[in-house]
Amino acid sequence: SNQLGSIYGHTSVMTGSLLDDHHWHSIIIERHGRNINLTLDRHMQHFRTNGEFDYLDLDYEITFGGMPFSGKPSSNSRKNFKGCMESINYNGNNITDLAKRKKLEPSNLGNLSFSCVEPHTVPVFFNATSYLEVPGRPSQDLFSVSFLFRTWNPNGLLVFSNFADGLGNVEIDITEGKVGVHINVTQVKKNRIDISS
């Protein structure tokens, strides 16, 4: 979300989705008079600011990643950013490099660390034709699987596996926005178990 413009006009533009995926994302904001280019991961949005002025008065400070606790009332009590930023450039100055070399006032830094711990999870994106197949573990009497998922699709197959010796299969899916577990067993009378949330 970006708010740019004079005191007599308010311009707010939002772009992007699913940005909390543990991947790096690139943001570039360029202003030329009232013309703004907002680029997120190489997807550019062009817009014009509301208001009457071609210049942008940034007061005496610009903050990255949030506001100090004594922030101005205009901060709308927004939560500060949790995560990593790298290669912060402002008007040609590499802010992260200057901060690391202590070329900025220490009072302006807050509680920063100059290392980013890699996330323990690695997300994977599936399109309509992709799947991930891994080796099973035969001769095991325990079946345990856990995962996080995010989707806009109301229907889709999440997990599927055949039982050994043609004894049936297990299937976890989303049907009309609900998660279902289906266990099909071929050797018994009541041969299908369905669990739905």
From TrEMBL:
Gene3D superfamilies found in the cross-reference section: 2.60.120.200
PROSITE patterns assigned: LAM_G_DOMAIN
CDD domains, A to Z: LamG
Domain Laminin G: start-end pairs: 1-116
InterPro entries per the UniProt record, alphabetical: ConA-like_dom_sf, Laminin_G, Neurexin-related_CASP
Record protein name field: Contactin-associated protein-like 2
Annotated organism of origin: Struthio camelus australis
Lineage: Eukaryota, Metazoa, Chordata, Craniata, Vertebrata
